[in-house]
Each structure stands twice: as C-alpha cells, then as structure tokens.
Amino acid sequence: MKYRFIFAVYCFAATLPSIATEFNVEDLNRSEDKQNTWLVLPYVFSTDGMGLNAGAVLLLDGYIQPQMTMVFTAFAGEELDTQYGPNGSPDKARSTGGAYSISGYRPPFSDRLFISSLGSYAYYPNQRLYIDGSNDSKQNLDTSDTNSVSPLHTQGYNNWFNLNFSYVLPWGESKHKALPNIQLSRGLPVNRDDMGGGEVFTTGQTIVGTELFYTRWTADRFIESPALNTNGIRFFLEHDNTDYPHTPSRGYAFQATVSIDFGFGNSTQSWNSLEFDYQHYLALPNLSWTRQSVLALNAWTAYSPSWDNHRTLTPDGVLQKHQTPMWEGASLGGWDRMRAYDSNRFNDKAALYGAAEYRFIPKLNPMADQQWNPFPIDWFQFVFFAEVGRVSDRYNLSFFKGTKYDVGFSVRALAAKTPVRFDIAWGEEGSSMWVMLNQPF
Q1: For 275, which of 28, 223, 302, 367 could close a Cys bridge (C-beta 3.0–4.6 Å)?
Q2: pTM metric for this prediction
Q3: Which positions ≥6 away from 145 have C-beta within 8 Å?
Q4: Cα–Cα distance between 323 and 310 in angstroms, integer?
Q5: Where is the signal peptide (predicted)?
Q6: How far apart are CA 349 and CA 168, in angstroms?
Q7: CATH 2.40.160.50 describes domain 3-437
C-alpha cells in the first residue's frame, strides 16, 4: 500500500478554523498568570515530492492579547532532481520555506473588529499539480505533453498571503460583550451547559467579514501558464451556535462565502465562486471510560458562476475561461476534505461534499501531569471518519455518478489550547496521512 505522507503543519490555511469564531479561553487548571501558553515542535517528514525535510513550528497562545494565537514555522529539505520543460535540462534543488499565522488581533479603536493574517513563502522541487482536476481526470504520467499530464510534476513556488477582517455583530451571545469567556477544565468547557443548538442569529455568535487574498503558484513545466496567479476579495457571513468552537460537542455552525478575483494586476484571469458550509454536532452518551463522545457531521458545496467550460484561456489549452484556480472554489482533496487524496486532486465548476466523524475522548491521559509537562496536553481524542465528494461541470441528476469515497482514523490532542491532529485516510487512489492543526470541521 502506497502512503503519501505530508507533514502539512506549514499549510496554515488549516491553522484557522473553518468557522472562525472569536472567544476568550480560561484554563481552570492553570493559575491566572499562566494562561498564555507556548509550544515548540520540531518535525521531520519525507515525501516523494519534497524528499527528507526537517523544520520546527512555534505556537503561541494568549500572548499580546488573550484571544490571540500565533504560529510560525520554517523547514528545509534534501536536494532532489528537478524536472524542467522539454527544452530544459534537469538540475538539483531543495524544498525550503516558511509560514506564519496571526489570528484574533483586536485593534484599540474597536471592541468588535478582529484582524487575522496568514501567509507562506516556499519552493518545492517536485510539486504534484492537478491542472485538469475534474472528477473524471485520470492519473497519467506517461504522456509527453506537459499540458495534459496529470498530475503534473514540476518544480516551483507556492506563495500566498491572506488578510482577514472579522466583525462580531451585537447579536446573541455577543450582544453585550464581543468575546464569550469559555472556562476549560482539562480541555473541556464547564460553563457552557446552556450553549449549543439555540435559535439562529438569536443565540450563538454571528460574524461578518472580508478577506483579501493573493496567491502565486509557479509551475515551470506547464507551458500554457508557467505561473498561476490570483488576487481578490472574499465576503463571508458566519454563525456559530456550538458549546465550544475548537472542539464542539453539540450545536451547529455555518458559513456562506463569496470569492471574487477581478483580474487585476498579475492575475491569470478573473473568476468568482460561492460556497456554503454547514456543521452539526450531536453529543452521545458517555461510556464508563470516556469523557466525551460526539457525532460530528459536515456538508459543503461550492459553485463558480463565472467558469465557462466551453472556452479555453488559450487555444488548445487546458485552462478554461474564468475558471477558479485548482485550490479555490469547488476543490476537493487534501487535509480537510477527501483526506485520502492529494491536495486539490479534484476541481471543477461545482462540488458537493459530506463527512461524518465519531469522536471520543477517553478519561485516560498519560500526559495530564502538569508538573513535568512544559505545555499542557489536556486530552487525547480518537476519531473514525468517512467522507464522500464529487466535482462536476454542473449540478444535475447525474451529478453523483462517479462519487468518490474514503474512510479513515485520527488521533488528536489539545496542546497549548490548540487541537493537533494526525489523520490517515484510505481511498481508491491509495492512502494519505496528514498532521495538521485544528479540527477539519
């Protein structure tokens, strides 16, 4: 069985929850002057595309402002052979890069505005890019046509930057105070018995916001467009009605997003997309040896009105007019959706996705001794999950033909007030393992 192992903690799109609620956390197991926590985690990983790599990640929680979380990482790998285009010659290069995430900063002039930013600058000697990532595309590495090979193996950069502005509306739980105060005992909330599952927009927290985004993804062997660039703006509405957004045990949350690239600057082309994400959590009866048992459900869909699948960007090219980049819009595959498949394995005009996870936290925690442990690991969580997904060029009755499935298992821990997870998933194209921050939903 072939495993595609990705230590993707440097992919900081996942350091922010999909529903980015704002709240304060008070750890009742720590004194008032030790509420801020930090964690340094060295890591080593190996992949076909990056070779052997080593790096470290620094996680800071509660510094500067109590609700803030900051993550920084850097990594470097061994030298690998690169693959240039038909007229080029091979060379050697190593993967190098770094990334950061700063979330939840509240400027002094507003009690309800929060600013977050994340970005990455990295070079990869042998990326796997699904330029034509439709649901029916085949993995074919034998063709000599670098515009049609799937996946395309090429060296290049993956650089991106996001700047997020979130405004907490004076509704529900945040009517009088923007930030709810959540008290934790050994990582589980103790003051939230009456929270989770209330009336929409009357209880819970509601956020409106906007995000500026920029991505430059170079693919030196892709003749049609050696660099895929996008920049634009997102508008979103979020509503969280759960008991504890980091690890919900009951309630629901949803997010509606509109993303637009106007084609300005170095953008490859203009595009737009619509997304809707719904999450639901059901508390299950505990067994004698568990602290928490939860059934977590997720449904997500995306659609790109601009995508014109009847015209191509260039004559006889693979890219279609006004299509979303492979990592935007209706894209499946990677650490959050369809985890058995490569990142951005499938992308098209429309997508549907569903997932179910059974999560349980046992009472046993061998690292609960805070005297010798430099950072708190408040619980370990074990998860069984199943996913189903499909991309297509339209919504219709035949949409579900060729639907993809996968199943998996996960071990997670709450370290420095942040969930860390190790997922392994199996699908029809093999299996993948991921190490990430935060729950997938």
Answers
A1: 302
A2: 0.88
A3: none
A4: 11
A5: 1-20
A6: 32
A7: yes
